[in-house]
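Subject: Sanity check before I submit

Could someone independently write out the structure tokens for this chain? I want to compare against mine line by line before I put it in a report. The sequence has 146 residues.
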Amino acid sequence: MTNVKGNAKGEITAMTTDKDFPGFIAQEKFYSLASGFMYSGWMPLSLDPNERRHLRINVSDSAAAPGKTFILSPENKDASVVWFKSLLGTTYPPFETTGGELTLDQLDKHTGAVSGTFRLTARSSQGESVTITGGTFDLQPNDQAD
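---
Independent answer below. Compare away.
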């Protein structure tokens, strides 16, 4: 399948234990549709817009189905939710997910529209941990008709 990618519309929100980003609301969203779907969004730190936090949601095409719940772990290759930081264009290694769930409430493989919920715990290579709860997403490629 050809990789189609671009800007996405909709929302990604969550509560986090990251002291700088307790309420995550993605400011810009992106998508990639190839052998599944990937949606991501980032939020800038209010005091320093060059510092950002990112959430990325990935689900393989073979595993994607509405109503399906995935257990998130490093071993799960069908679905993931990734938390990572960037500063002045430098992207730091993503936190490794140590547990959680991702549920697809709705999925339209024709248009790429997807919605669902997630929660996770993750740890950075430096030992920093983050817990993300109440995560929601409702997204579609920006070039799709309403």
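---
OP: Matches mine. For the report I'm noting this point. The chain has a mean pLDDT of 90.
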